[in-house]
Design a protein that fits this description.
about 85% helix; about 120 residues; mainly alpha
Length: about 120
């Protein structure tokens, strides 16, 4: 592993850890921070730092937009899934499975609409 890759992993992990710790203290603020597309923003920065290719970032942002949409129902359904499925892990599994299904549906709909990613 290169020092740059280790730095990326440490910085990215620290941000995730900070948000999870913040949630223990102030869930509302943590929810706002968590709703920021931190993973995407960090990926944009790392990708640009490694390539200096702004057009690549633009294409990546465009594709990311379309694949954020099928993830949104999981966030809305998680509280309900936790109640009906009896806990976090089954709800998370169901949420992930549903999201994967919506990814495939999104890909088919985008292809049918002529959207190229």
């Amino acid at each position: 592993m290169t020092a740059q890759l280790i730095t990326k992993a440490l910085v990215s992990g620290a941000i995730i850890a900070a948000v999870s710790e913040l949630a223990k203290r102030n869930n509302a603020v943590a929810s706002i921070v968590h709703s920021l597309p931190l993973t995407s923003l960090i990926a944009f920065v790392w990708l640009y730092a490694g390539t200096k290719d702004a057009e690549l970032i633009g294409r990546h942002a465009y594709g990311t937009f379309w694949f954020v949409l099928p993830t949104l129902p999981m966030f809305l359904l998680m509280p309900w899934l936790i109640k009906i499925l009896g806990g976090f892990w089954p709800a998370l599994g169901a949420g992930i499975a549903g999201t994967v299904g919506l990814y495939f549906l999104t890909m088919r709909l985008l292809d049918a609409a002529g959207v190229k990613l």
